[in-house]
Amino acid sequence: MATTKPKFDVAKKARSPAIQKLAITVLSGGPSNERKISRESGEAVADALRALGHEVHLEDIGPDNLAALARQVDAVFVALHGPFGEDGQVQQILERRGLAYCGSGPEACMTAMDKARAKARFADLGLPTPRYAVATTQSIQEAVAAWSLPVVVKPVREGSSLNCRIIRDFEGFRPAVEQVVGEYGECLIEEFIPGREITVSILGEEALAPLEIRTRREFYDYDAKYVDDDTEYDFDIDLPEDLLERISEMSLQAHQGLGCRDFSRVDWRVDDERLQPYLLEVNVIPGLTSHSLLPKAAERAGLSMSMLCQRIMELALNRKFSR
């Protein structure tokens, strides 16, 4: 069993003068289907930053409610999950207003949120990703006929595994695709990879320790992420050390290849029989709740939730002052 040792140099990152007190707006909630989780992430971030003495304003915003951005602050912490928060929309607004903010820029967010576009980029980078196709209203019959089962059916632009299903029988295949197309306009059909679920969090330009997720459910779905108390998270992974190192290296490649910055979370499936990893997606605003994986990986590296949020803020401010 490989025990992934923290490689993140906490002492180096934490070595700084007393923390300068900042005025920070934390954006949470928003209009997406992930609104509830986004509010929880925002509250966790706000509490973490307040614990360091910062002046924190927790705001619930949306495309038609941007009044919170009129407040003069040192920086904005984006904790908005799903469309509007992760697809580049709010980032474009922040750019136009000249506000310093944490996380990836508009183009990287747009690419990462579009699973098909991101997977095409992974292929260009030479990173392994499951075979996929996109079905629309006009192509459902042709798309369904081209696949053998099992497959994964999910929205092209959605988060938290919402409306994501593993399809194992043809009777339910087309209805599942039609349901997603009907709600979202298009549907991603993806090769199902049996095996383990591994995730790697990125902070700055470094990969934190890989984390294996074990759930009693068929996969790491919404309930396993945010509801279940018996989902297990393990840094002691029964996989070869060189494979875990390669997954970490490829995670950083994916993060950088999409143009991401500051932080992200990279999700993988590993075929147990062939020991072959497959990159699923990059999350530009990963969860920051008590169940979330980036805080767990940061804690493994010796960073408390408060220091994780502080580090993310510092990355945003360094970018602001280097312009």
- Highest-level CATH class of the largest domain: Alpha Beta
Q: Which second-level CATH architecture of the largest domain applies?
A: 2-Layer Sandwich
Which percent bin holds the helix content?
25-40%
The CATH topology of the largest domain is D-amino Acid Aminotransferase, Chain A, domain 1
The helix-strand sequence is EHEHEEHHHEHEEHEEEEHEEHEEHH
Rg from C-alpha positions? Answer: 19 Å
The portion of residues forming beta strands comes to 15-25%
How would you state the average pLDDT, rounded?
91
Attribute tags:
323 residues, 3 domains, 36% helix, alpha+beta, 4-stranded antiparallel sheet, 6-stranded antiparallel sheet, D-amino Acid Aminotransferase, Chain A, domain 1
Give an account of the 3D structure.
The protein is built from 11 helices and 15 strands. The protein has 323 residues and is α+β, with helices and mostly antiparallel strands. The protein folds into 3 domains: 7-103 and 304-321, Rossmann fold; 111-128 and 193-300, ATP-grasp fold, B domain (D-amino Acid Aminotransferase, Chain A, domain 1); 132-191, ATP-grasp fold, A domain (Dna Ligase, domain 1), CATH 3.30.1490. The strands form 4 sheets. Strands 9, 10, 11, 12, 14 and 15 form a 6-stranded antiparallel β-sheet that branches. It has a 4-stranded antiparallel β-sheet with strand order 5-8-6-7, with helices on both faces. Strand 9 (196-203) and strand 10 (206-207) form a beta hairpin. The radius of gyration is 19 Å and the shape is globular. The termini are far apart. The model has no long low-confidence stretch (mean pLDDT 91).
